[in-house]
């Protein structure tokens, strides 16, 4: 059995709207093993993006423990959490979140600006990340000069460039056609299988979920079913 890289214990998430308390996540436990590729599925409002944000350190639980890579992140200050994210989590979003004024290589370099790496070291990491996603020949292109699939590959390279513990993907193929989506999912699968990356992906798409090693289904803030892909 692989070591758990993500462990949630008794985690809840509530919001207050006026005098009304809204329970987004019921108390839940979850363990994700090193090297897993987990697809989080469920209807809109089921809590899957909230759960993803807790795992990635973008949000903190109302109660319970969140451990990632041996670090209990639910107790970190906002500043410490931001520092932790920059070293340990790579994020991939549905709409790429690239800066239009920057080239592909400069977009990929952004997470490294928070590190102590030299300019030459950063350039080497960026070149490697773009090579992994098959875009070494597009390094100088700006997002407006790239297709949707290429833009998402740049976003994945940016997520990879600091060699994070965990890749967190929120609907990474939601804005792409089927063929391009399959290419991006194939890339994520390669990163998981050949580069050993642990990936947690939120998706509405059953076909996307088939690329993962495990599927986890949520409804009304609770985990309702987990299945393994063969």
TrEMBL record:
One of its GO terms (molecular function) is ATP hydrolysis activity. Belongs to the ABC transporter superfamily. Macrolide exporter (TC 3.A.1.122) family. Pfam families: ABC_tran. GO terms for cellular component: plasma membrane; transmembrane transporter complex. This is ABC transporter ATP-binding protein. PROSITE patterns: ABC_TRANSPORTER_1 (PS00211), ABC_TRANSPORTER_2 (PS50893). The keyword Nucleotide-binding applies. InterPro entries: AAA+_ATPase, ABC_transporter-like_ATP-bd, ABC_transporter-like_CS, ABC_transpr_LolD-like, MacB-like_ATP-bd, P-loop_NTPase. Keywords: ATP-binding, Nucleotide-binding, Transport. Residues 6-230 form the ABC transporter domain.
